[in-house]
Amino acid sequence: MSRPIRIAIVGAGPAGIYAADALLKSKSAQDPGVSIDLFERMPAPFGLIRYGVAPDHPRIKHIVQALQQVLDKPQLRLFGNVDYPAHIDLDDLRALYDAVIFSTGANSDRALNIPGSDLSGFHGAAEFVSWYDGHPFAPRTWPLGAHRVAVLGVGNVALDVARMLAKTADELLPTEIPPNVYEGLRANKALEVHVFGRRGPAQAKFSPMELRELDRSGNIEVVVDPEDIEYDEASIESRRSNKQADMVAKALENWAIRDVGDRPHKLFLHFFESPVEVLGDGGRVVGLRTERTELDGTGNVGGTGRFRVWDVQSVYRAVGYYSEELPKLPFDLASGTIPHASGRVLDAGVHMTSLYVTGWIKRGPVGLIGHTKGDANETVACLLEDYAAGRLPTASAPEPEAVVDLLEQRGVRYTTREGWYLLDAHERVLGSSQGRERIKVVDRDAMLDASGA
Fold first, then answer.
1. Which of 26, 168, 344, 399 is the most buried (most CB within 10 A)?
2. CATH number, residue 246
3. Interatomic CA distance for residues 90 and 295, integer angstroms
4. Rounded-to-integer distance, Cα 17 and Cα 229, Å
5. Which parts of the chain sit beneath pLDDT 50?
6. CA atoms 85, 388, 362, 137: torsion sign
7. Model's pTM, two decimal places?
8. Nearest to 154 by CA among 209, 203, 88
9. Contacts of 320 (CB under 8 A, 6+ apart)
């Protein structure tokens, strides 16, 4: 092939951009060269870095700087506000590109099928995160009238949700939160936030940094019951072999032995409590029933038959993200992933030629940025191996202008890399007028206008 390899990447979050980076660093980037088009259904790139990270985590958002360096490469183009399959479908992509990588992530909430999960006031963490991160598809208001709130789950998303519920709006005002989120948080009535985990401190999936941040607010008192500090043989071994698990357990132990202070908002971390039912009255949440659990020696737990009812008026489930099924591609409903072999998309065990997958829709919503890079490297290695072996079909319309013509013929109002920089500058100007780094634009049409779409 004398021309560059034409590759489409569907999803411009970290997974997609890391795949582009791996391609650009490969030998094929020099001979015969690669030409990459990134498609993103949002007007702006960066996926969960923009719409899934709590606004008071500026260190994590600095990842954007590294991602932007990849976007700046001349071999790469961004097409934002382009939806798969509404604007461009699988047949289109196969005609226009020699290979396609899907990196659409996981944006929905995994279900928690317990009685009462249909009550008003029972929320998914991903929905709440989308609201406070100013996602264009999220509602503009959020019900925050509960005085006592439960959060189910012991991962970093649960901590983010709990912290956002416990902090005051003024504490978050210096961040990039849009005006509707600030006004919503000003009306927040929560004085107690209860986080529940069915296992013990050694099994919590918090990162030490995320956990310690809970205690840095002058308005939040973190409370841990000393009776919840318990370990079995497997838990002790986990602490010995896993430095992060040991650091988390030590932080929880320190909080358990200190006196409870007088900070106005209380954030309780409960362990060995398994949610069994959300209680309702008149269609609304009025409580949560949990069963006390105990360790069985292996790090797992079993029920004790002892139950407790917690007086809460709202419940958030933070039990994992879930990917959306993509038309014309296989999908595993149990795992919420696309079946694959090292990144090659499989249909009934057979590779769907020229189709690849990376990120959370490949491995599930677990792991950190390092895992995402490893995913991308594995997938790209398989793609390039197939190319070298002559297993990639040649696109019938590989000219770079062909996709532009297609989108314009269909009346798609798309954004570009240059448009993202216009939007970025616009948000920074909005922020500078209030002494803030930026104020995020929420309305989709306003984003498109600012991007010069």
1. 344
2. 3.50.50.60
3. 48
4. 41
5. none
6. negative
7. 0.94
8. 203
9. 109, 110, 153, 155, 365
The reported pLDDT for the residue numbered 370 is 72
Q: Are residues 146 and 234 in the same domain?
A: yes
The pLDDT value recorded for residue 366 is 83
Structure tokens given for 354: 């020229």
pLDDT of residue 40: 98
Q: Which distant-in-sequence residues (6+ apart) come within 8 Å of 31 by Cβ?
A: none
Q: For residues 126 and 108, is the Cβ–Cβ distance under 8 A?
A: yes
SS3 421: helix
Cβ density class 158-173: b for 16+ within 10 Å, e for less: bbbbbbbbbbbeebbe
Burial bucket for residue 391 (CB in 10 Å: 0-12, 13-18, 19+): middle
Q: Are strands 321-322 and 148-152 parallel, antiparallel or unpaired?
A: unpaired
Structure tokens at 211: 């956990």
- The two three-digit tokens of residue 94, written as one number: 């196969």
Asked if 303 and 377 sit in the same domain, the reply is no
Q: What is the pLDDT of residue 4?
A: 94
Same domain, 67 and 206: no
258 shares its domain with 391: no
Q: Which amino acid is at 157?
A: V
User: Do residues 274 and 300 lie in contact, with contact meaning Cβ atoms separated by under 8 Å?
Assistant: no
Cβ atoms 167, 127 nearer than 8 A: no
Burial 393-403 (b: 16+ CB within 10 A, else e): eebeebeeebb
Nearest C-alpha neighbor of 46 from the set 17, 77, 87, 10 = 17
- For residues 375 and 359, give the distance between their C-alpha atoms in angstroms, rounded to a whole number: 6
| C-alpha span between 217 and 407 (Å, rounded) | 48
